[in-house]
């Protein structure tokens, strides 16, 4: 799993108050974030209903807040929400996101872009199988990344139970596609950028470790299905097709430069040897599965 997205849903308090989704997207692998929303008019909270209420129970226009919405995945989600007719507010610090990714929405009155780092306070008002609990090395080089995701899910569920708001949780696996930053440090972008620059593609270890790769439009479809569904999650959103790093390098080589070479380096500590999502839960409850394969 390389990322997680958490939806926090607060129903309208009056006929004139817009519904709000809050999307929490972990962008920085070494700086996991957690976010919250508040409603100043609300002084008490109701406990969650005994039966889930789908986000899409009312198909009126909603106002959606997307943190990291100028980034790779976030900007594609913004496109889908805007196409659906929602009002969209994007908050991004532009550390990895780019204004160009959402520039085509800037003249739309339903769109607002705010440059802000969510680790700083800001007041906003608005009228594997998922049962796997993790195997985390608390002092490893990846520990802050792993613990950040685990803690975000815990805090989100506590917020739901204590404050009476609906939430949705997605566990996102390796994703690629348009607007992907070539210097984001992920393996697909690394291989692509190295091949384009006529540099050797760097493979760590023996290259037999496996990963699964999904196209960004498939991920957005999954997020929209989760948002509109009645199930909290967590849901694995990824493509179960499995490739070794050597196989991925070969795909990039065939696509970009047949003369590209491979350079082997010592593997990093705690690097998982296998990362493949079980998406049976998403297929059953969200009627979702990826359509695009890596070689398409």
From TrEMBL:
Q: Which cofactor does it need?
A: NAD(+)
A Pfam cross-reference name: Epimerase
**Pathway(s):** Nucleotide-sugar biosynthesis; UDP-alpha-D-xylose biosynthesis; UDP-alpha-D-xylose from UDP-alpha-D-glucuronate: step 1/1
Ranges for domain NAD(P)-binding come to: 125-295
The protein's matches in InterPro entries, at most eight in alphabetical order, are given as: Epimerase_deHydtase, NAD(P)-bd_dom, NAD(P)-bd_dom_sf, UXS-like
Q: Which GO terms describe its cellular component?
A: cytoplasm
Q: Which UniProt keywords apply?
A: Decarboxylase, Lyase, NAD
Q: Does the keyword NAD apply?
A: yes
Q: Is RNA-binding one of the keywords UniProt gives this record? A: no
UniProt-listed GO biological process terms? D-xylose metabolic process
- In this protein, which residues make up the domain named NAD-dependent epimerase/dehydratase? 65-118
Molecular function terms, GO-annotated: NAD+ binding; UDP-glucuronate decarboxylase activity
Enzyme Commission number(s) from the entry: 4.1.1.35
The UniProt family comment states: Belongs to the NAD(P)-dependent epimerase/dehydratase family. UDP-glucuronic acid decarboxylase subfamily.
Summarizing the function annotation, the protein's role is: Catalyzes the NAD-dependent decarboxylation of UDP-glucuronic acid to UDP-xylose. Necessary for the biosynthesis of the core tetrasaccharide in glycosaminoglycan biosynthesis.
Q: Which PANTHER family match?
A: UDP-GLUCURONATE DECARBOXYLASE, UDP-GLUCURONIC ACID DECARBOXYLASE-RELATED
What protein am I looking at? UDP-glucuronate decarboxylase
What is the species of this protein? Ambrosia artemisiifolia
The lineage, from the top, is: Eukaryota, Viridiplantae, Streptophyta, Embryophyta, Tracheophyta
């Amino acid at each position: 799993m390389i990322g997680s997205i958490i939806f926090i849903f607060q129903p309208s308090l009056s006929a004139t108050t817009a519904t709000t989704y809050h999307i929490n997207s972990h962008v920085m692998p070494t700086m996991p974030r957690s976010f919250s929303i508040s409603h100043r008019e609300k002084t008490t909270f109701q406990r969650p209903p005994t039966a889930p209420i789908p986000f899409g129970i009312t198909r009126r226009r909603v106002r959606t807040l997307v943190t990291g919405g100028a980034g790779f995945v976030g900007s594609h989600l913004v496109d889908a929400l805007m196409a659906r007719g929602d009002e969209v507010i994007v908050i991004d610090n532009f550390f990895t996101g780019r204004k160009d990714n959402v520039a085509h929405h800037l003249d739309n009155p339903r769109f607002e872009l705010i440059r802000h780092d969510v680790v700083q306070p800001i007041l906003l008002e608005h009228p594997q199988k998922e049962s796997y609990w993790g195997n985390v090395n608390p002092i490893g080089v990846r520990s802050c990344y792993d613990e950040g995701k685990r803690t975000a899910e815990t805090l989100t569920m506590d917020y739901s139970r204590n404050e009476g708001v609906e939430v949705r949780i997605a566990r996102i696996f390796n994703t690629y596609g348009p607007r992907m930053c070539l210097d984001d440090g992920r393996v697909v972008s690394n291989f692509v950028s190295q091949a384009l620059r006529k540099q050797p593609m760097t493979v760590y270890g023996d290259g037999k470790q496996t990963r699964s790769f999904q196209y960004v439009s498939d991920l957005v479809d999954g997020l929209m299905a989760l948002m509109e569904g009645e199930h909290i999650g967590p849901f694995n959103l990824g493509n179960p097709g499995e490739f070794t790093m050597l196989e991925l390098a070969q795909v990039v080589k065939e696509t970009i430069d047949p003369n590209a070479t491979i350079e082997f380096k010592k593997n990093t500590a705690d690097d998982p040897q296998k990362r493949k999502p079980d998406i049976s839960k998403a297929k059953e409850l969200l009627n979702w599965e990826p359509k695009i394969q890596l070689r398409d």
